[in-house]
Amino acid sequence: MSQKRQLHLGLFLFSTGYHPAGWRLPEAVTDGAFDPQFLERVVTKLEEAKFDFFFLGDRLASGADEQYSFPSQMVRLEPFTMLSYLAAITKKIGLIVTVNTTYAEPYHVARMTASLDYLSKGRLAWNVVTGADQRAALNFSREKHWDNAKRYDYADEFVGVVKKLWDTWEDDAFIRDKETGEYVDKSKVHAINHVGDQFSVAGPLNVARPPQGQIPLLSAGTSERSQELGAQFSSAIFTGEILIEEAKKFYAGIKGKLNKHGREPNELFIMPGLVPLVGRTEEEARAKYFELSQLLVTDFNITALSNRIGIDLSSYPLDGPLPDLSLSTLPSEKVKALVGLAEQASGYKDISVRELFYYFAATARGHLLIIGDPEQVADQMEEWFVQEAADGFNICPPYMHDGLDLFVDLVVPVLQRRGLFRTEYEGSTFREHFGLSRPDNQFAKSATLQGAVH
After folding, report:
1. What are 20-30's pLDDT values in tens digits?
2. 273: number of CA atoms within 13 Å, CB side?
3. What is the pLDDT of residues 333-358, one digit of tens each?
4. Taking residues 302-308, what's their average pLDDT?
5. Least confident of 87-101, 223-237, 250-264, 419-433
6. pLDDT of residue 226
7. Can you state the angle between helices 224-233 and 148-166, rounded to 10 degrees?
8. Domain ranges in the chain?
9. Residue 1 in this model has a pLDDT that exceeds 50
10. Crossing angle for the helix pair 282-294 and 353-362, to the nearest 10 degrees
11. Helix 224-233 crosses helix 244-256 at what angle (to 10 degrees)?
12. Fold for domain 8-275+373-453?
């Protein structure tokens, strides 16, 4: 495999588009979440462009109240079901399934992930989440969602148990000798007999060791516990940084935690979310941004925006200028940088409160919005990559299908010409796309070490 550092690209599926008003564009798809043809078109487009992965997030609660703020998140197909379908119609692209450990059991998750790794021929990865939606508890016979500490204590042990279960059958455990009638070498099948604070699991798993040996893990979040979980287990971390200086600090901080877990920097990839609003020209891209802004259904509740910039904006007219940013209760440089991003999106300085509101409505979930022609979008992606603010990006098209098509058809070729992104797959598994080796079986390795001692 090539040793040159290159960008990694994945798609974070928002079926109605990442922008809250993306589905209202005349050319936009509104019902893709449940349409197999829509899903097939998307994943085929990605595979033709040599994307590393297709990523499906998940939540365990919903409500109609989200229709104006984030319609993509209200309803969606169950991840394992959807990805099983996509595995059957693709050959190379990685597939990331999201599982919330707070409302699951390790044995179930180990079994389902191992099965899907087989069905995809080694293209699965697991996005480990602990959940942030308080409403989920009420859907699982609980009165409240666990606090951060309890969720991560549970997740730490949960992941450890799953990783052991994946290894309970050694790679060469199956003999299948028709002459002797011996189907399996019993010495190469292992119970884990795990008894911990959260779980008691005997094993072995009733699925053979996955094709990738250990299925890659991914995580997201910026809390200290989340970062530690990522540094210990994850192959990639999804982030929501939008300021490059903050992103560089996060990148360096995470990579700096790896050594104590016996890991190298090239074993973990930092992938911020990116919302590319691409036009054939800068003017075309900005016109689409203004069109999306006008399509927002909103009462212009300014509370969240006020908190974001540390200034109570409730007394300022929507179409009036922003207040003096030095009034902010937050660090002034950060606030100026945030407002600077909104000015870049609008294409001029001295924006109004309304225009600042439009920008943060478009980025409400915390992902970087880049507006411009193909070269301009590629320039910013390259800057983040070269300055080690990112190893790649989780692409969140603002609307579908054109929001994705414009990025794939216009920006990806620019990245390829610059030598920043592959032109062909070099491998066939998720691990191979990221240059990760297939790990040894922990039980086989343990037996080898014990034999060496004796």
Report:
1. 999 999 999 99
2. 24
3. 999 999 999 999 999 999 999 999 99
4. 94
5. 223-237
6. 86
7. 10
8. 8-275+373-453, 281-367
9. no
10. 100
11. 60
12. TIM Barrel (3.20.20)
Q: How far is CA 194 from CA 99, 158, 200, 217, 449, in A?
A: 21, 11, 5, 21, 21
Q: What separation, in Å, do the N-terminal and C-terminal C-alpha atoms of the chain show?
A: 38
CA 363 – CA 349 distance, rounded (Å): 19
Residue 135's CB is within 10 A of a number of other CB atoms, namely 13
Token representation of residue 343: 């000015």
Q: What is the pTM of this model?
A: 0.94
Look at residue 69 and tell me whether its pLDDT is greater than 90.
no
